[in-house]
Amino acid sequence: MNYHLPRLERLLLxxxxxxxxxxxxxxxxxxxxxxxxxxxxxxxIRLVIPDYNSDKDRxxxxxxxxxxYIYAELVRDSxxxxxxxxxxxxxxxxxxxxxxxxxxYQNQLRKQALGLVDELAERKSIRLRRRSPEEExxxxxxxxxxxxx
Length: 149
Ligand SMILES: [Zn+2]
Prior knowledge:
By secondary structure, the protein is an all-alpha fold. It has one domain. The chain has five helices and no strands. The protein starts with 14 loop residues before the first helix and ends with a helix. The model has no long low-confidence stretch (mean pLDDT about 85).
């Protein structure tokens, strides 16, 4: 009996996400205050309630989006509604800015890593063969650019 099974390639549920993930992962939430859950994130709650304890205290309703209204009344009744839309909007902004900085930093790291790969490839090519005059000029131009910075 022949047990050879066919080999198939992955069939992605959402190919566009895979494409994004080749780059630095970035959040797709519309509301950064609650990450589209309707409940303000614990780390953001603590900016307003420093000793907030998620095991004992009520979850905080996000007022930056209407998301929390999809939940049953019972759930909504058990929430802490003291955060105003203005507070939630500010928390959204804080976390959004935080992400922007994180992404900028990760992109910088990524560029550095890619630069390193290029440099290694270049070194390897030197060992394998001599550069053509055009390549030599390009390398010198890059060096001068690097020095000018
Ligand atoms: Zn929200």
